[in-house]
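Input set for joint prediction.
Command: fold jointly, output tokens.
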Amino acid sequence: MVRATVRWLASSAALLVVVTALTFVLTSIAPGDAATAILSSQSGSYTPEQVERMRHLLGEDQPLWARYGAWLADLARGSLGTDLFSGQPVTEIIAARLLPSMSLVVGTVLVATLVGTWLGAVSARRGGFVGRLVDVVSLLGFAVPSFWLALVLIELFAVRWRLFPPGGYVDPRDDLGGWLATMTLPVVTLSAGAIAFIAKQTRDAMSDVLAQEYITMLRARGLSERSIVYKHALRNAAIPVVTMLGLTLVSLLSGAVVIEGIFFIPGLGERAVVATGDHNLPVITGIAFCFTLVVVTTNLIVDLAYRALNPRVRHS
Amino acid sequence: MRTGRWRNALTVALVAGLVLAGCARPETDRQGDDRTLTVVSVIAPQTLDPAKTAQNNAWLEQLAYEPLIVRRSDGTLRPGLAESWHYEGDDNTTFVLTLREGVRFSDGSELTAQTVVDHLTYVVEAGGQMAPFLAGNTFTAVDDRTVRITAPAPNPDFPVILTQDYIIGGVIGPAGLADPSILGTTTVGAGPYMLDPAQTVAGDHYTYVPNPHYYDPSAVHWDTVVIRIITNPQSVLNALRTGQADVAVGDPATVTAAEQAGLTVASALFLWSGVVLADRDGTMVPALADVRVRQALNYATDRQAIADALFAGIGSPAHQVTVPDGYGYNESLANAYPYDVDAARELLAQAGYPDGFSLAIVTPQYQQLNLIAQALAQQWAQIGVDLQITDYANANQYAAEAFGGQFPAFMTAFGHIPIWMQGPSLFLPDAAFNPFKNVDPTLQALYDEAARASEAERPERDRAVIEYLTTQAWFVPVVMTGLPYYARDTVSGIRTSAQEPLLSLYEIVPAN
Amino acid sequence: MKRLGLSPTGLVAAGFLLVVLLASLGAPLLAPYDPEQQDLTAALAGPSAEHWLGTDRLGRDVLSRLMYGGHVTFIAVAEAVAVYVVLGAGLGILAGYLGGWVDRLINGISDLLLALPGIIILLMVLAVFPNNGAATMAALGAMTSPVLLRVTRGVTLAVREELYVRAARLSGLTAGRIMVRHILPRLAGPITVQVFLFAATAVLVQSSLSFLGLATPETVGPSWGNMVAHAAAVTSQDLWLAVPTGGILVLTVLALGLLGDAARARPARRAAPTRAYRPVVPAVTSSPPAVPGPATVNGAAPLLSVRGLTIAVPGPDGPVTVVRDVDFDVAAGECVGLIGESGSGKTMIARSLLGLLPAGGAVTAGHALFRDRSGSTTVDLARLGEREFAAIRGRRIGLVSQEPSSSLDPSFRVGSQLAEVIRRHEPMSRRQARARVLELLATVRLADPERVARQYPHELSGGMAQRVSIALALAGNPALLVADEPTTALDVTVQAEILDLLRDLQARLGMAVLLVTHDWGVLADLGERAVVVYAGQVVEQASVDDIYRDPRHPYTRRLLEANPHRAPVGQGLPTIGGVVPSPTVWWPGCRFEPRCPDATPRCVAGPVPLEPVGGEVGGSANRLVRCVRAEELVRR
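tokens >
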């Protein structure tokens, strides 16, 4: 147990270093820099001396490794630097935007898992027409581009029928109902693809499981069909599905970027797009760091769940 | 059965969730108990520092920073933090302001003439977008309530510059001047409201609450003012249609739909959109150095077609870098460059480019500018000009490259401002929109005359400047559009005019 | 490609993709308009004769732009797929084949790549290479390649261990040659599947980036993503524009996904195994006259009476009969052995009694009369539906199968599984069930039942698992236990213990046992009577003693001679020449005839009935043989 923890810590630390270092490298070799971006947004015209001064101010004239070292030093003190444009501490920016992003992503994972496994189980059990129908619906959910689906859903459910707001975000601590209302359409949009994926994985896993000998034996022992499918089979099929959840979450993080923009949710993804274009290095690195933390944590949870579900692994 | 229990729990949770969601009161119902004004702006500010922020963030600044002089929606001026003002002498170089009494900033500190002097000094030092207008000026606190500004050259537009439209008139309090770094995310002003950082998420929404020290509480009509940033024009429209916001900055693409949805649409001609032919010295593209080439480009542009296709109902062809009834507008030049492909070809041939030439141009994606660029590409191809378009979704990238002189030409949408102010912004050697720093003595002379002119003479002098710019074809203006504002019937006071096309938040009151 | 031909949806999907691909690649020749040609007077026009899909905001033809846009999409997908395959398959093969530190290193890199927050990296790559689709797509391919890498590695590992590959290595083939000749062909299927799925993802990612304005801006040329963005700006004015632009994306991704599914080499269609009992042919209502059943030891009617049982399973050209006209009885408390080679149909017979025939199989004729506990009513197992079987399975008839390790649910503890079955058959409290669990585990002679109850199946040895399986079968107090090769998978010492246990249980619980086996030793140990099955028919029925001492049917005789346990030391083991005939070629006469040394033309003249044969003095009276020469051959 201790060894596994140490290993997890080591690999997570390595990942964080790789991602943040990569961020530094890529952002600095990208053409343009924050100095000119700031100057042109502020004053429009600027002299080369002004650019030099600004670059010095921002630390952009330092060698790359020095800047990365400084960032790591900041990190050790619990700081992620400050926004190059507004001076706001990056930790504040992230703190304000973390909950909206996580609401969206975690909400989607929950909804997609529940709906997806249910669909997959039903489709594996019934086969035939229902199974094919579930297949097609799942595939459609995967195929429809999220941004297109979002536009259609907004036009119908928000604008024409006034059932949900067309976007925005309400803090659940202020107004739980409002939070649910604003999250519904974005989560539905983002889930579409994930549900398809999970339903398919579940169905494949369930089909495999239902063909196993022990399922026949359970039947021979007189257990009800419901118990066999939804207790025994699903439990065994959950193992491969759970291991896919980690991957699903990582891809959801990416999908969330587009959704946050369309529904104007003040999340991390939306900010990342702007910050990348602006060469706002501390913000980008901070967000990359945050995303990676989420990924690492998810992997840990998935691993723990896998161990809990799979007795063979637990005891080895 | 265990599965049965799970299912029941799930059903209960689902029903509870739906009920809660249904119970969420849509913001339409939130009238009466808490008066909140929600307005939508389409560009996120990089910083809230009045000395450094861009002009299109005026709404975010005017709530917290009341300017020295306030401009009403009909274009006339009224006292702000200054109760009176006048020019001394007759050469427009000295301007004097008398401050209101008993004005306090949001942190309780007092407004004095020295504060104003320090503020203006800081504005110039910070080097923001508006700084050039006050560059080289001397600021003096004559006494506790009197400020004198002396300019090195005539400046006929002091009052206008110091209104809310150009932001720098909004005086920063001593606490902010002492440590300007806090101004990026907090406000220290003497306006009717102040920023509430606890309810603000940078880049998404900014919440303003009443300033307890404001000198005229009766003018504070709202308990909260929220400025939301929504960049997608369609989403902006949706926010209004569904009651999530009361007022918004609109977009030509959604005007028709806004009207159909029953929203109030206020729009006064304000912007001209078109091409800045920056490389007039021919450094990157020799052809542009010849005025005939530039004029040819103007003749080759079918402005009406573009206006009809992209700005139906809210845009009209523009031939001058100003708007009808606006500063320096020449009636005689209303159709200065009628669409005439043959004339264009003729001019090109005369200039020595019968086969045309290649021209690189950069464009942002807002205000339909990238679409106009594509339309121009097709039209100019007919005279052999090959327009190579570079297109940026990130506005800062576009700005960096356009103003950085990396392209011989760039698309822009420019607001209609006094000629004296257009100079340092648009066409004088140090202007941001003149990245190649072209010097034109004739233009300079015309400009200086206009700066010195008296109130009576100025319109004519202004027209002379615009005429020169038009005949010299420094630009290819394509369309003039208004800046549409949308509003729901929950508010009133939504007015714009030719003299003041920018909507002021001060005049917006609840509908009843 | 041949596999695709099987599924109609696969064909349609492939056809659609082909059309789109051709339209895109052939756009310069086929498109009705220049994609950049504007007509400002006809902006945002709906579909018309001139513009089949309407026009956009600058009056450009939507159809033409979609065709040219497809070009962008397919190039992008090709770029991404190329990197994906090269990295994924290449590294996967290396890792799987070479193993060792190479494997560990590649796995480490693969885990790293998978954990990267994709969108951030893509955004930054876009910032570094603005408007360079190739770089972005390459990055996407690289970051997703671990998915393919895992699949490839798995297959490579499996193939590497196969005998023919090991032989190839031993015979000196170089690693490279082996990889190309043996491993790559096996990878073709899985790689194809993954490639299609990834291609679908690549299309979506590329169009998303385009939509956000980060790649392929409109000014460079049309792409499906930027066309949707273009349409998105005016949905309030004109909703139509969003339809073809979004629609082409949906359809293309759909097609790629369907092809990925179709390419999946699923063996026989895994039809839902729950419908285990779906009659292939309606059961025959009339039945041949019953052979007089042998009287049981105490004269009572038999517990199970099978008459004329005929079972068919689905075949490629229709149902195939695999068991025909089988008769036998099982008395209460008796142990009857069904003995025969594999493929003789004995397992089918056993499973049919519980309605657990493999998918599609059904009893098409005959009866299997089963007397209930009180003795008053009889139920015909051959005519029961799924719901009626619920009352039988586990409660009246139990089943123990061959493979103990795979007959237990690996995710639940032994005690939990037992308790579930117990409470299913008899409502009781948790505590009572716990007690009964321990009781049952003790009954099957497991030392330390408490400990075993807490264990998981994978912690049990073969013998222990089989005991648990037996305990599970006993949980409902069945009158009949069907034991399908219960000891075949166990080693010899454990075999003896299990058989001992079964004998003991049979005696103590008065339970009847139907023992299916191919092993004469097992039969001798446990059985009282034997039913010899050959090619779907009963060929001989007698007490075990009689069968051993005096086999009447030529097949039985040969089978006994071939029994390794009885073979004389030092001599070659006799075998029966020939093979068991397949059900598809069965003929009316004696099916053993081709392999029978005593065959005569009489044997195949017509169907041979199963008839009683006179026993020797002192032998039991219930001998049946299906052989026209039964009497004759005795005298030999």
